[in-house]
Amino acid sequence: MRITSILLSLLAVAAMSAGNANAASANLVKNGDFSQVSNGNNNQVGHVAGVTGETMLANWTSYDGNNGGYNFVLNGTQVTTTDSRIWLQSFTPQTNGGNFFASDPLYHAGVLSQTISGLTVGDKYTLTFDYALGQQSGNTGANTDYWQVLFGQTPKAHDLEVGVLPANTVTQNSASLSIATGGFSGWQTSTMTFTAAQASQVLSFFAQGSAGAPPFLLLDNVSLTAAVPEPSTWGMLLGGIGLVGFMARRRAAKRA
């Protein structure tokens, strides 16, 4: 009876672990591909709806303290043409050719934020996103830039510029991307892990970089999922099941 209880407990743990693994496929970020806009593609991102020449990103907030900042939603099939508000040099699109977010870290960069709900306090979450660095047409000069990612409370752009974080907020940086004048970095993927301190927290992106001619940091395919159980957890589980089997065989041998 005791062995049966232990085995059932281990199977329950296995089921819970499998459930967590399946939950990891659910993206908690909404509109992570920036496809949902209020006023078309290739527009400056606004902070207040209805401003002429601006568009709103569903589920996201872009704010530099006064307005949406010098942030844009652009389209991969148009960004090297005159149809685009910002024309990037040497640009290579993602395979899907869809929308992406673009921010100039040196000119009124706004914080891009989204409130993430449904978190489990103490659980780890994996953040992944694609990013790249390009330069606006008509400009020259080398650049090195990166995304500062924050998880906690809503930050203010002018505070981040001087290194001040909001309370109860953790931050990580993507790897820096560097380009020569007129260059394009190509798309990269960044992966980070954050631990939830509250059931609802704000995920934010802020473009940071060195002085240079107008660069644009690009962002696409943002995803936040529950972390998959560590391999060590599965190892302990399998070891426990093996131990139960050994005990069962030993008991059977004694009875024989």
UniProtKB/TrEMBL annotation:
The keyword Metal-binding does not apply. The chain crosses the membrane at residues 231-248. It comes from the Bacteria. InterPro entries: Ice-binding_C. Residues 1-23 form the signal peptide. Keywords: Membrane, Signal, Transmembrane, Transmembrane helix. Residues 227-251 form the Ice-binding protein C-terminal domain. It holds the Pfam family PEP-CTERM. NCBIfam families: PEP_CTERM, PEPxxWA-CTERM. This is PEPxxWA-CTERM sorting domain-containing protein.
